């Protein structure tokens, strides 16, 4: 059962808003096969550590932003939210994101492949009369701050849309 929405299996898709914010993290480029084999996992682990040492009780989810603009794969940024006036930890790059609207769905461990879940989301977007907004990036993913890279994928999937 999903601890976020209390239901088994396929999760509802809804519109979600994200305010403008700044991320600190790292960029990666590679193939879908490399990503599926775990090439992004070290970045997720690094961001878990970066989130853990930040002051205060709230820990940022680990945010992944993808650009599907390579013929052989994609670019991906993995980061955590920081304050606008906060300097990133040494070696991290910053990415400023505007306020945006997303089609959003929680992907649980029992939900199968992430690609299939994205497919259902794109069908929902079309059925709702929305348009996929690729003007800034293609996908956003939010991993819990305690994400287990050795387990099945458990994360929020977000597709930018124009209402």
Mean pLDDT: 90
Fraction of residues in H or I helices: 10-25%
Q: How far from one another are the termini? A: 30 Å
Globally, the shape reads: globular
Indicate the radius of gyration in whole angstroms: 15 Å
The total count of helices amounts to 3
Q: How many E strands?
A: 9
Order of helices and strands: EEHHEEEEHEEE
| Derived structural class | alpha+beta
Q: What can be said about the biggest beta sheet? A: 9 strands, antiparallel
- Taken as a percent bin, the fraction of beta residues is 35-45%
Point out poorly predicted stretches.
Answer: 1-10
Give a short summary of the structure.
With 163 residues, the protein is of the alpha+beta class. The chain has helices at 32-36, 41-52, 114-127, and strands at residues 14-18, 21-30, 62-70, 73-82, 93-97, 100-107, 131-132, 139-143, 155-162.
Describe what this molecule looks like in 3D.
With 163 residues, the chain is of the alpha+beta class. The chain is 19% helix and 38% strand. The chain contains three helices and nine strands; from the N terminus they run ββααββββαβββ. It has helices spanning 32-36, 41-52, 114-127, and strands at 14-18, 21-30, 62-70, 73-82, 93-97, 100-107, 131-132, 139-143, 155-162. Strands 1, 2, 3, 4, 5, 6, 7, 8 and 9 form a nine-stranded antiparallel β-sheet that branches. It is globular and about 45 Å long. The model is unreliable at 1-10 (pLDDT under 50).
């Amino acid at each position: 059962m999903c601890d976020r929405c209390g239901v088994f299996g396929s999760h509802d898709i809804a519109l979600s808003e994200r305010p403008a914010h700044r991320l600190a993290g790292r960029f990666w480029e590679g193939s879908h096969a490399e990503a599926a084999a775990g090439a992004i996992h070290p970045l997720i682990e690094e961001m878990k550590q970066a989130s853990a040492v930040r002051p205060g009780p709230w820990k940022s989810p680990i945010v992944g932003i993808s650009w599907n603009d390579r013929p052989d794969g994609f670019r991906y940024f993995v980061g955590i939210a920081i304050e606008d006036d906060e300097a990133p930890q040494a070696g991290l790059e910053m990415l400023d994101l505007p306020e945006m609207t997303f089609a959003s769905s929680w992907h649980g461990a029992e939900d199968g492949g992430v690609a299939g879940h994205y497919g259902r989301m794109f069908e929902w977007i079309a059925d709702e009369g929305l348009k996929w907004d690729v003007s800034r990036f293609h996908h956003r993913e939010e991993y819990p701050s305690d994400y287990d890279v050795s387990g099945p994928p458990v994360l929020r999937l977000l597709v930018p849309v124009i209402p």
